[in-house]
Amino acid sequence: MKHYITYILFITFSCMQASMAQKNLPPTLQADSADVRAEVMTQAYIAPKRVMWVSDSLKIKNTGVLTTLRTGQPDMAREPYCAIQTGKDTVSIILDYGRELHGGLKLVLGHCNSGNPAQIRIRFGESAGEVCSDNDGGKNRMGFSSNDHAIRDFVTVIPRYGMLETGNTGFRFVRIDFLSPNRTIQLKEASAILRYRDIPYTGSFRCSDSRLNEIWNTGAYTVHLNMQEYLWDGIKRDRAVWLGDMHPEVSTIMSVFGQNKVVPKTLDYACRLYPLPQWINGISSYSLWYLIIQHDWYMRGGDKDFLEKHRGYITGLIDKIYPLVDEDGTEHLEKDTKSQLRRFLDWPSSPNEKGVEAGYRALIAWAMTDAEKLCKKLKDDARAEKCRTVTERLAKQIRHHNNLKQAAALMSIAGIMAPEKACDEVISVGGAKNFSTFYGYYMLQAMAMAGEYQEAMDIIRRYWGAMLDLGATTFWEDFNLEWTKDAARIDEFAAEGKRDIHRDYGDYCYLSYRHSLCHGWASGPTAWLTQHVLGVGVEEAGCRTLRITPHLGDLKWAEGTFPTPLGTVSIRHEKDVNGNVKSKIKAPKGIRIIK
């Protein structure tokens, strides 16, 4: 059976799903099967969309052949090739693959006038500026890129009449510098290697606004690229499991891919990596997110076996948190936190310490509320009582949001602050101003709780849409609307009077070109549009009961599909001439729909 990975904006691939069964190993490996890790990923080869730049058109000729994907096989026949002639100076070419990808580069070579391998420098970049930058050896300086997490800038050699497959990073652009002097080189193919998880997009979203459609698809694709062996933050940098950052990604996965195995696999891994009494990732707030993710995952999938598997970690974490919250509401979760991120929400909120304090306490309350529900499912009344006690104690000390949108959003979700008040005072003030790619999802959720669906859609169009206007094909680690002033697109070289938005901005650990332009935590609008425009709410574990409450705002219609363990639900909402919404819903057997 064929599965399809669909990136609506650019390309559709069709290929067979890779088998994971050990019986499919070559016979010579059967005896060693315990030492063989089966691959969960597959790959596809993609030709450049364009040759963006060459250093010397007289020395690099017939570049058009590179934009056609051919056999991928080196041979000695007189097929068309890109002719490269080096003299004393280096010659260079930049290729644009048209979209963000995860993987590497395949070069297919023909004749070379020397039997000695020619030396080349390869640079991968998420932007046109980054692909021309130098790395600073991990110093995290403005104007430089980094080889942290993935090598994106290196020197290697190429064969004649051969091929080279190299690289494993996130990129859209590749620059090749031909370093060896006085060489004549035939380059027959320079294809990107897309390494991806071959899974169907069973969830979908379409509406009368093409901009929102593009945003939904871009968020889905952003997360898909980060669904590697485990669920990552970013495919260029932060190729690691950060449990707290996963929640928006998990929300998107549940809306697009359903109950994909990468989520429980990653949760298992995080618990093994950080056994109790440690905080996950050494950050107390990330252990709180673990409880929230466990609740959401159970409600969507209804997997009681997985919940039971994590019983000890869930209850052990509750036992750890309970004595750290005093009867008067004073809490001490940072008591044994070694990380500097003792009160971490997200990076942009960090300078606002009072606001972070309010938001952090709200996050504890949210997590313990979800943990209480989990304990009831596990029939652990004693620990459910502990969770309830913690939230009651926290309610004795309500901190002010200090005009921090992240804090007000969490306070709304946790039931500490009325969503209408939070939006009037903070979240909706200035529209998308001071939104963040990570916590923007929770700001949008608070706006939905306050009934501000139209305002939320406007912010999605303005904030996430602005990244698309700048050439983004995936959503970024961080973004500020103020950056857009006089900014060049990321798929162009910054002209005089324009700013390179990738080079000139960023903060904390993501200065300049170290900034990730494909970060899964930025995918919130994808989940939000499914939840609030299509209007899908899960009322019973395993999606056995769904509440469908659409909010079309200024849209004429919206339609899509929603994956459940029992099958895919099809939904269409359309306004009649009087503005009333008419809905058509088709659900699999076993699912009850409440309107």
TrEMBL record:
Among InterPro entries, the record links this protein to:
6-hairpin_glycosidase_sf, 6hp_glycosidase-like_sf, Bac_rhamnosid6H
What are the protein's UniProt keywords?
Signal
Which Pfam family is one of this chain's hits?
A: Bac_rhamnosid6H
Signal peptide positions (record) = 1-21
Alpha-L-rhamnosidase six-hairpin glycosidase domain residues are 202-401
Q: Which domain of life is it from?
A: Bacteria
Record carries keyword Phosphoprotein: no
What is the name of the protein in this document?
Answer: Alpha-L-rhamnosidase
Species name: Xylanibacter muris
Source taxonomy: Bacteria, Pseudomonadati, Bacteroidota, Bacteroidia, Bacteroidales
